[in-house]
Design brief:
The protein is mainly β and about 450 residues long. The strands form ten sheets. Strands 22, 23, 24, 25 and 26 form a five-stranded antiparallel beta sheet that branches. It has a four-stranded antiparallel beta sheet with strand order 1-29-28-27, with no helix packed on it. It has a four-stranded antiparallel beta sheet with strand order 2-3-4-5, with no helix packed on it.
């Protein structure tokens, strides 16, 4: 079903958004950093990481191959022969197959990941470039750049449909529930929305010079690199509504961390520069130069590392993650004289430091400033309320906790029952014993 927002109203919305983008983007502090390079070949193009995070595939047009990088060693450990001039590559989320768009021979190669071999080839449209695979690994969508179409491939049956879209489609993304594909038509300033049940375009969203796009893991949004306004267009999947994030440079390639926290943008303006956008605040981190001409990027499943194909190498970038702390209600109670342990840290990269920001810890309990672990042996009864902060170059987090320390039975270490409850139980037990005695006397 088409979006309830009309085409004309959304064109106007994009025009207003474009006018507003003359303001400078809000820059965020960032600990993202270039940590290494992996030589690959003379013409790396597409790049993708396996769902288990163990392997990176890089397409190489000149050699008609896919380079296989072992993540643990950081080395190219093999090559897979595919079609002529491979460009886009994507893994199926189940990790069993990978799909490669071969630009010159108008095919898509199917790779068996376990054996690292090509096991099938299907014809598609003219000059296929980008590939997207649905979350359930059953549907593959290929953008045919000079064919002005997308090819829809059923992973079990082969090619099923060819759907005409706008001019020069490049970026392709499938939303989380597999219902729609979004296609960035670089040649006619539009994004096509393709219904994957009816295999028809159900909406067209106008924006100036879109290039690449990516769907959010939660299925709520699609992020589009809009070269014409040097911004990121944000499409609301449910309503078709538009908003934007100012970037200040032309976005070529985009990807998103699997946790949905960061949008990564690769720009080619003299050098290849990688930007990270914190999606909670829409703040843009400083540029990290990754070679001279970037062609694609991928992100590790743990959201901690990005890999960028550029020049004749893959650039490895460590990503920062704002610290997070355990929820307030998750802190367990303690028992007098019994060892206590509670980990307040949840995530954070680089590793944050922890501090007591307010209140008082239970007597006998200390906070490890490096790990966020609360531990020790309580030495006093009572309730302690306190606040912990976690801080790193990526940001900070604060959480308030309350820990109750009760008495413990010396022999068992079990917390003693409150006196009122214990007295009631003894009263009930005594009544039952008296009733039993009376019954026995009657016999």
């Amino acid at each position: 079903m088409a979006s309830p927002i009309s085409r004309s109203s959304r064109v106007l919305a994009v025009a207003l958004v474009a006018a507003a983008l003359v303001v400078s983007p809000l820059l965020a502090a960032s600990a993202d950093s270039l940590t290494g390079t992996i030589p690959t070949g003379v013409s790396p193009a597409g790049i993708a990481m396996s769902p288990d995070g163990a392997t990176v595939y890089v397409t190489e047009g000149v050699g008609n191959t896919v380079r296989v990088i072992d993540v643990a060693s950081g080395l190219v450990t093999g090559s897979i022969v595919v079609g002529s001039w491979p460009v886009g590559v994507a893994f199926a989320p189940n990790g069993l197959r990978a799909y490669v768009a071969n630009g010159l021979d108008m095919t898509v190669s199917v790779i068996d990941v376990a054996s690292a071999t090509q096991i099938a080839v299907y014809p598609v449209g003219a000059d296929p470039r980008k590939v997207a695979v649905s979350a359930d690994s059953t549907t593959v969508v290929i953008g045919n750049y000079q064919g002005n179409s997308v090819t829809v491939l059923d992973a079990g049956l082969g090619v099923t449909h060819t759907v005409p879209v706008g001019a020069f489609p490049w970026g392709v993304a499938i939303v989380a529930d597999g219902s729609k594909a979004y296609v960035a038509n670089n040649g006619d300033n539009s994004v096509s929305v393709v219904d994957l049940a009816t295999f028809a375009v159900v909406d067209t969203i106008v924006m100036p010079n879109p290039f690449d796009l990516v769907a959010a893991p939660d299925g709520a949004s699609v992020y589009v690199g809009v070269m014409g306004t040097q911004s990121i267009g944000v499409i609301d999947v449910a309503t078709g509504g538009l908003s934007s994030i100012a970037l200040g440079t032309s976005p070529y390639y985009v990807n998103i961390t699997p946790d949905g926290a960061k949008l990564l943008v690769l720009s080619n303006t003299g050098t290849a520069d990688l930007y990270s956008i914190d999606l909670a605040s829409s703040t843009v981190g400083p540029a990290i130069t990754v070679g001279a001409s970037g062609t694609d990027l991928t992100v590790a499943p743990d959201s901690l590392t990005a890999y960028v194909a550029s020049g004749a190498a893959v650039y490895v970038v460590s990503l920062d993650i704002v610290p997070t702390l355990a929820p307030a209600l998750s802190a367990p109670s303690g028992a007098l004289g019994t060892p206590y342990s509670f980990a307040t840290a949840r995530r954070g990269s680089p590793a944050p430091t922890f501090a007591l920001a307010a209140g008082t810890l239970p007597a006998g309990i200390t906070l490890n400033p490096a790990t966020g672990l609360l531990s020790g042996t309580p030495t006093a009864l009572g309730t302690s309320a306190f606040t912990i902060t976690a801080t790193s170059a990526a940001g900070s987090a604060t959480a308030a906790y309350s820990v109750v320390v009760g008495a413990a039975l010396a022999a068992t270490g079990v917390n003693a029952w409150p006196a009122a409850v214990l007295g009631l139980d003894l009263l009930v037990a005594g009544g039952l014993l008296l009733l039993l005695r009376r019954r026995l006397a009657l016999h």
